Amino acid sequence: MKSIFDIITKQPIWIFVLICIIFFSFSSPFFFDLSNFTNILIQASTIGVIAIGMTFVMINGNIDLSVGATVALAASLAVGLQPQLGITGAVFVGLLSGVLIGGLNGIIAWKTGVDAFIVTLGAMIGVRGLVFIYTGEQSFYAHDLAYSDFGASSLFSVPVLALIFIFLIILSHLVLKYTIHGRNVFAVGGNRIAAKEAGIRVGPHMLVNFILIGFLAALSGVLLSTQMGASTPNLGRNYELWTITAVVLGGTRLTGGYGSIIGTFGGVLAIAILRNGMNLLQVPSFFVLIILGSILIIVLFIDKRFSEQQGHGVRA
Amino acid sequence: MKALLDSFKPGLKDKEISPLQFFGKHGISVALVLCVVIFSLATENFLSADNFLTVVMQASIIGTIAIGVTFVVIGGNLDLSVGSLLSFATVLVVDLHDKVGPGMAIPLMFVFTLLIGSINGFLIGYLRLNSLIVTLGMLSAIQGITLVYTGGKNVDISDQENTWFAFFGREEIFGIPVPALIFIVLGIILQIVLLKTGFGRKIFAVGGNETAALFSGLRRKRLVFSTYLLSAFTTACAALILGSRVMGSQNNVGEGYELLVLAGVILGGTSLLGGSGSIVRTVIGVLILAMIQNGLLLLGYPYYTQWLVTWVVIIVAVWLDIAAKRGKLLSSY
Amino acid sequence: MKVQMKSVRIIRSLGKVSLLAASISLGLSGMANAETFRIGITQNNVGVDSYQTTYEQAFEEAAAKAGNVEAVVLDAGGDVARQISQVRDLIQQQVDVIIIWPTDGQAVVPAIRGAVKAGVPVVVTNSNVAEAGQSLIASFSGPNNIQQGAYAAEMMCDQLDGKGEIVQITGQPGYTTAIERQKGFEDRLPEVCPDVTILDSQPGDWNREKAQRTMEGFLTRYDNIDGVYAADDNMGVGALNAAKAADRAPEIVFIGATNFAVGYEAMARGEYHGSVYQSPAEDARNALNIAIAVAQGKEVEKVSYFDTPKITQENMAEFEKPVF
Description:
- The structure holds three protein chains of three kinds.
- Chain B has helices spanning 2-8, 19-42, 49-74, 82-100, 102-126, 131-150, 167-170, 178-196, 198-208, 210-215, 220-246, 257-267, 279-298, 305-326, and strands at 155-156, 172-173, 176-177, 248-249.
- Chain B is mostly helical.
- In chain B, strands 1-4 form a two-stranded antiparallel ribbon. In chain B, strands 2-3 form a two-stranded antiparallel sheet.
- In chain B, α3 runs parallel beside α8 and α8 packs across α9.
- Chain C has two domains: 35-143 and 281-306, Response regulator (Rossmann fold), CATH 3.40.50; 145-277, Response regulator (Rossmann fold).
- In chain C, β6 (163-170), α7 (176-192) and β7 (195-203) form a beta-alpha-beta unit.
- Chain C is elongated.
- At the A-B interface, α5, α6, α11, α12 and α14 of A face α6, α12 and α14 of B.
């Protein structure tokens, strides 16, 4: 009980999530409902899965702007290759593409010393080019219905997509908090040079995290394509922006060395709840953009005040 | 005080230069020349005055914005909201053109664009919020404001033939397209401001070493604030060109520009850490990207091929630049 | 410990109160709206051009006038994933019928399958869904885009007197309207004008600036262009602008579709040569009427096209200038 209270006070995003839930429950009769909550989880899972990886990368002091393009690449491969490789083969190649892109980003960042922002900015542009070249600007469709059936399937009446998301949240939280790799993430992010002096192999470590986020972005793309039974070349546009937004809302600092999966989860939920609630309230889409943008800035401001008052340390 | 400021200036050391260091300093110009040579050999249409003017013209919108954003980046920050701001400004000037005439529309557009720039400047300069996140949030918010303003409808100028507004996007002076002139003239003026005025030197100081700058009495808040005003100003100029070219605007006309602008600035060698950079190099960076786009198109490749080439070019260019500065090719991690 | 117990109790009672409030309002709304139908619509991309904005306006007006309709109007912003979420949200809001203006004709099919499974019939408007979805939908209402493509081919043929080299600027890739207009055009052209060749075809994404840049690329690459077919006038005017800037407009024939006000004006000036008249208001009203009929359980036509005639410089006096 005490630790839950702790979380809420030290991570303002969860207070915000609570306020949103209460507000929307009163404003719309359709909000406070199990099927709506599972809808929210599914909608959150697309950005959420990527945000897990982004948390690791950002605590490291890096960033990854190429995730949106990776989503599109993985989705296009996972659907487009089905006639040749079958569903399992195509999905495998899709996931592999994410691993390779992440690996490429990681190696370039490690060996050349070019800042992750620039490396992944280049990848963002270039991988999207790869997607367009591979797809010829066309959408691909999964003629095998089993693919989209998976996207709609449930286990114990909870959608499989939501289960996968929750499972990954729990797993990554445990890794970040209780494993050596997890502790190294904070060390490298806090002070890269000191970490190196302490014996941590910084380059390979960061490479692992880039591969992780590349894989998760690919996974998100594949899962999204099962919901559609299709892939579109413009899939994932602006996903990197929303992922970074969610992670920062959750309390992870852009400067590195500080962050948590629980916080990221809160940030992801906040955005999904806001979108879902505003949909249910039929807020015109134009205003949704203004509201989301302003909230990001406001939460940033509040968080700055909070942390200036409390002081903070390294924590998962 | 002057000595302190001088120490922040990007210094020129006259020791012997390794090939790597040569690349670092002059690499960007080498790249430009290489670009021209490769494309001229590959296709006959490339090396013509007409085509060159087309390239500069196509680069003019991105380039104009990039000039202002260079100041922001030298100051140690980012501005991702310029794309949405471009949409907003273009839509505003085109819409107001028919309502109050171009004479009033243009100043009004500048006022409102600078107003938004000042919001950025306030949040980042005075409240010291992170510039990546703030301008990301503004990207969404400005997009929303634009849509609310137009109600989602396109805006059009009805009498496109008889308005002097066409000057900015469609006319020529001594055979040079006006957009190119605006781009080049702004570039020259702001390069002088950057390198020759106290203001410019202070921006370098603020971006380079914040703590020292703070202690030497520089007004960081005001300086950062003014960089965002500059970026909004150049975006407004770009909106003049764009609005005049299309004489009508859809709400999302500026979408994606922030990335191209950033790519140009980075390619030009301005460091994202702040404290160094130059307008001339940004201009060259933008021109290189425009040439790649133009050249590939002339060679008959689909437009998205340029994205692959841009990816490689950016990474190689920045790598060489960094390698030159640290003296060796590979990093030590 | 005491403080925490108290807050837990407060939270629990808050939860109970909101649940109670929710059920009461749900019950009340259920009772009051026995005669009214809840119709939800998820549109493609309201902000991308004024046809779609005018459609939305007309839809909301028609729904208000109908008296027995409560409309839930959503916009997918051109994002397929968002449209799928919106379909789910509409099911959640217990609408009687879902009208969908698909952002991608194939990718929304699983979402439609989900809606039909949940007992909510689906009506498609303006841009059809793919083959795989045809058995699932209750009806499609919109323009006949293949016919429009064919019209464009015929108009191009007339204007060129049967011979020439042309370029094509298509709509958004993956969008059924773009695909159908391209198909209609490319199928019909060799039938009426075997001597007219298509030099190149690039997407304009329904965006005027993109179409302008694409045309600039064409003009640089091809020394002789006799005509341009743009999948809508918004893009067609962009191509016209590019041609005018290069001083090559007089020698080029411009044919488009979905006559926009700018297209109409350009036609009046003699710079633009042909288009297809399409009323977003009619489009919206048709969709609403069919949806109401479906909600009432009536039989509806599987496919209802509304009339979209050719408009050229010769017959343009018969048409009113479009409001969008």
